[in-house]
């Protein structure tokens, strides 16, 4: 069984690789034997992190919404390695409000800026589409590959706005419509692509992670944890096994599926 999880000599690109979960995706794939392309907007930081992973990996700047740049990255990968075996579509925009005092007002659905909604669509949906098209086409030509589209539990269920209330019961902000709408689109795009490229040997699956503990307020961690059957938020490295599983031959008969790793959030 250990051999089925091996990614030795396979080439994997991770988009949004410098994020909290993205870094862990890269580390897991590298430890499984893959040659990892660390792709993120910040090219210098991507190169530095790739260097930390080892000599067989490399970092590169990537804007997932820019078709020309995505194609340039594809060409660089093929020039260096000659193939692409795994794509982890991890890059995403999760809206943030620069002024905390305005968070409640700006995140309310009635006030949420359409420009910000469109920006989320561009990164979270168009970016996933574009990377899958450009990098996945190489896999289809090879006759083998694995695409992992990272969605979210919020692609499956609506946000429970109560978890964003503080100890006094006051709403601090709202989870907006942008993230759930775009992540829901990713889940169904996965199904389309799995059906489309199944005969080409390209497997396409979704990974839907739950929330990761990362310095949030105590009230939020408590509220979130109470919604899961395991009674806690995830640690950043707890999606590593799922990524390696979906990338490797351990999941060889799995395509079009949504692997939900959420501590039981969507179970109740």
Automatic annotation (TrEMBL):
Key words, A-Z: Oxidoreductase
Pfam families hit by this protein: adh_short_C2 (PF13561)
InterPro entries recorded: NAD(P)-bd_dom_sf, Sc_DH/Rdtase_CS, SDR_fam
Molecular function in Gene Ontology: oxidoreductase activity, acting on the CH-OH group of donors, NAD or NADP as acceptor
Gene3D superfamilies on file: NAD(P)-binding Rossmann-like Domain
Domain of life: Bacteria
Keyword Protein transport (UniProt): no
Keyword Oxidoreductase included in the entry's annotation: yes
Family: Belongs to the short-chain dehydrogenases/reductases (SDR) family.
Descriptive protein name: SDR family oxidoreductase
Taxonomic source organism: Spirosoma aureum
Lineage: Bacteria, Pseudomonadati, Bacteroidota, Cytophagia, Cytophagales
